[in-house]
């Protein structure tokens, strides 16, 4: 009651809408430890794009590749930081698919999920292509057809991924230890070689290696811009810890700790490695057919060193393939529960592993095996370009979700956590413009790049058509959830069945 002449009190702010946990999170075992998440975050930033792709990009752009890595690394950091804020807001194995569902509705979740699936499906093709390339370094495999080696790599990693999430975590932990240890060892050796001016393949390392071979931009400014599409692909996997958060205890504490060190790792491992490679050998010494790290040790003439480094980069390729199978299995299950993915991708085995989604992704890996058979020389470049487009789409959707979350918080409908993306909403807007710019650069890359971009409308058309096929099922699942029941029965780890499975 108010006295005469006293204005009534302002109405209370609108209450935050209740956030329903993603139904696809049911049935997972929280068996990933903080050390697993930390090393997954590190290992996700070190993969095929760095170990194999850097060779061809150095040959094309020279030392200016370091600048491309720095620029793309900054935006990669912003994307992961935005995802980290969403994870702290609500951890989910569905990751940004679940966030797209929350902020953009089922259509947004459908687009985010299938874009991410295509990202990792094509990345998996690149990984098995890289694995076949690395294996042929040893003479015992030199006469084995690349497609046979690619098939073996796929079968080995698929078998390891289907055991349990703890098995995946341990595998990725040690894969990451090997990758980080090898890169650190390389950088130490490189610094010693440069400091002592020890010849590498007849070249004296140092600044003259750059200045005497065309300088910082030996092939011009445009090639440096054009390689950014491949550089973006090199950073694919950084978002993996967002997916793993759903199988981690106390994710709101563990994930921010793991992500806080990403920026310096980008500078150290990516930019630092390219600078050292440029100081050790002229950019013309590198090629797309061999890892640049193997090239250095081969030219150095250290017995067995090139073989050891080649084993390391083979490990990186298998690690990336392993991560892709893990991530898509969880993403597809989240979508299957909502009705936008095939029902069998929601199925789980006794180890609480969504084997249906993993097998679907592996089937695309078989296409990579076929690509190795039909066009072994160009297969890596073809799938790399298509995977880069999917990475751009995935990152764009993450930033759109972050922007929508910011707007919702500004209206008082949500509360942003203490761990947040700095500079919002400008950082999201600038990042989206950057991603569009990289897509435009791909159009300027006549050949594979242009063909890839021209294929985008076809993929969009297929996704739109797919939505009309599944929308009735999605509507039914949504009504069931709003009615207070989840679509399907609760998960029992040993049942082999999950929500949404009929």
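^ Assign residues to that structure.
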């Amino acid at each position: 009651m108010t006295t005469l002449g006293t204005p009534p009190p302002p109405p209370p702010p609108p209450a935050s809408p209740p956030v329903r946990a993603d139904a696809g999170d049911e049935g997972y075992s929280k068996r990933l430890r903080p050390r697993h998440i930390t090393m997954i975050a590190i290992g996700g930033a070190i993969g095929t794009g760095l170990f194999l792709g850097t060779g061809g990009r150095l040959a094309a752009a020279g030392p200016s590749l370091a600048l491309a890595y720095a620029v793309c690394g900054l935006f990669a950091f912003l994307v992961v930081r935005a995802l980290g804020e969403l994870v702290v807001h609500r951890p989910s194995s569905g990751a940004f698919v679940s966030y797209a569902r929350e902020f953009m509705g089922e259509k947004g979740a459908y687009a985010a999920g299938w874009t991410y699936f295509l990202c990792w499906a094509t990345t998996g093709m690149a990984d098995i292509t890289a694995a076949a390339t690395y294996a042929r370094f040893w003479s015992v495999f030199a006469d084995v057809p690349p497609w046979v080696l690619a098939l073996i790599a796929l079968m080995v990693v698929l078998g390891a991924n289907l055991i349990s999430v703890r098995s995946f975590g341990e595998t990725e932990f040690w894969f990451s230890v090997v990758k980080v240890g090898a890169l650190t060892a390389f950088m130490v050796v490189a610094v010693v070689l440069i400091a002592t001016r020890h010849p590498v393949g007849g070249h004296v390392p140092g600044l003259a290696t750059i200045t005497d071979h065309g300088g910082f931009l030996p092939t011009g400014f445009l090639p440096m811009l054009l390689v950014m599409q491949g550089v973006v692909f090199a950073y694919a996997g950084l978002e993996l810890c967002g997916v793993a958060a759903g199988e981690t205890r106390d994710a709101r504490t563990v994930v921010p700790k793991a992500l806080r060190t990403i920026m310096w790792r980008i500078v150290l491992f990516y930019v630092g490695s390219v600078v050292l490679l440029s100081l050790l050998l002229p950019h013309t010494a590198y090629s797309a057919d061999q890892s640049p790290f193997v090239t250095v040790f081969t030219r150095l003439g250290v017995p067995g060193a090139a073989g050891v480094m080649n084993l390391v980069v083979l490990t990186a390729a298998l690690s990336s393939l392993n991560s892709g199978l893990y991530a898509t299995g969880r993403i597809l299950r989240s979508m299957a529960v909502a009705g936008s993915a095939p029902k069998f991708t929601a199925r789980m085995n006794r180890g609480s592993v969504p084997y249906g989604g993993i097998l679907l992704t592996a089937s695309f890996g078989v296409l990579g095996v076929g690509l190795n058979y039909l066009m072994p020389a160009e297969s890596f470049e073809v799938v790399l370009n298509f995977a880069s487009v999917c990475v751009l789409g995935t990152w764009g959707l993450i930033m759109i979700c972050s922007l929508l979350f910011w707007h919702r918080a500004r209206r008082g409908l949500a509360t942003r956590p203490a761990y947040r993306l700095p500079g919002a909403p400008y950082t999201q807007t600038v990042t989206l413009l950057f991603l569009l710019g990289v897509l435009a650069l791909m159009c300027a890359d006549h050949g594979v790049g242009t063909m890839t971009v021209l294929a985008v409308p076809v993929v969009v058309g297929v996704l739109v058509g797919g939505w009309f096929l599944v929308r009735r099922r999605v509507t039914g699942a949504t009504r069931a959830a709003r009615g207070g029941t989840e679509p399907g029965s609760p998960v029992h780890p040993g049942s082999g069945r999950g929500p949404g499975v009929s």
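The first helix runs from residue 34 to 43.
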